[in-house]
Amino acid sequence: MYKIVISCFCFCALFTSCAYAQDSLKTFNYSRNNITTTGMTVLGSWAIANIGVGAAGWANSKGGQNKYFYQMTTIWGAANLGAAILGYTGAKNNAGKQLTAAESLKAQQKIERIFLINGGLDLAYIGTGIILKNRGDNRNSGQLKGYGSSLIIQGAFLLLFDGTMYSTHRSDGNKLRRFLEKNPIGFNGKSIGINLSM
What we know:
Strand content: under 5%
Number of helices: 4
Structural class: mainly alpha
């Protein structure tokens, strides 16, 4: 009788621990998707503003540096809008998925890596813009100066955006990693497992 009571108690404690862990994983996954959808809304708003301002400036420019600045701004606005729509729909599609601890950690690492790589690309955009602008100054080319100035501004905004997104996701990811270290037992709705660090 004593063994049955102990077994029941252990099973109840294990089940309670698994239920707590699963609810916490849902919270972490919701937070990751929420951060991403909020970020994509910000990026999409920036993109729409760039398309509007860029198209109006491009249409009203007689030529020279301003025309090419607004032209590149419009092109970047369209590219950023496409990226924002893809990112937003991807996060929304993942919002209802129930992920295991391993899947949650993998998704977290992936989103952090994406924004870290994007930050490196942003530096390349800024560098390219500086090179184009300098060449434009040396050759007295309005096209190169306009494109260069636009690239510098777009790269600087994207660096700020991607840096903020990376740092926010990284902070959330650190909480998830600490949680998984303290709660190695997982339940995916069908089976109970223990998460071991190798």
